[in-house]
Write a structure and sequence with these properties.
This protein is of the alpha/beta class. It is built from eight helices and six strands; from the N terminus they run H-H-E-H-E-E-H-E-H-E-H-H-H-E. Strands 2-1-3-4-6-5 form a six-stranded mixed β-sheet, with helices on both faces. Helix 6 packs across helix 7. The two termini are 26 Å apart.
Length: 191
């Protein structure tokens, strides 16, 4: 997998995830209508150029409220918001009812970050269990390791970490993955 240098500089701790998603989504040829709930950085949307996107900010659009799911979409993106939702299993019910494909990302080993709340850390198995009643194809992946988890706890901000760490150290971190020490988890779900 090629990890984009711009992604590394913008957000080191999510660069592997976004690079992997780019490869995963390239082969799907997604099209139609889509919505991203969250404070979108637009990165996942950019990987699906055949989709006409709408962005619904979270928390203004409450993903637990059925009125936020007022239509059907071909693609739904939830990028780093499920940890902030009181009852994520209900969100999976909404997703399963309203879309053909879903792309979901969550943090795992990361500090508490209220937005306005922070409730959950999910494992890949938890995501698969919540998704399985609604989606027949589940491609869940994760990335992280002791070194990058330490770097995040120590520095938090990409630029600060890069300024205070040897390039060799953080580059090696990008190339290593320990499934038992994930930093981020993501899944592509389809029916």
């Amino acid at each position: 997998m090629h990890i984009d240098e711009e992604l590394i500089k913008a957000d080191y701790w999510r660069a592997v995830m976004y690079s992997s998603l780019k490869e995963q989504l390239a082969g799907l040829g997604l099209s139609g209508s889509g919505v991203e709930f969250g404070g979108s950085n637009g990165i996942i949307q950019s990987y699906c150029p055949g989709v006409s996107w709408e962005t619904r900010g979270y928390p203004p659009f409450n993903v637990l409220d059925s009125s936020s799911w007022d239509k059907e979409w071909d693609v739904v993106v939830l990028d780093q918001i499920l940890e902030h939702v009181e009852r994520p299993w209900e969100v999976f019910d909404h997703i399963g009812r309203t879309c053909k494909t879903a792309i979901i990302t969550v943090p795992f080993l990361i500090g508490v970050h209220p937005c306005p709340t922070d409730y959950w850390r999910m494992t890949p198995q938890a995501i698969e269990m919540l998704a399985s009643p609604h989606f027949s194809k589940i491609d869940t992946r994760s990335w992280g390791n002791t070194e990058v988890n330490f770097l995040h706890s120590e520095y938090d901000i990409t630029g600060v970490m890069m300024a205070n760490t040897e390039e060799r150290v953080w580059r090696e971190g990008l190339e290593s993955n320990d499934e038992y020490k994930p930093f981020v988890i993501w899944t592509v779900l389809s029916k």
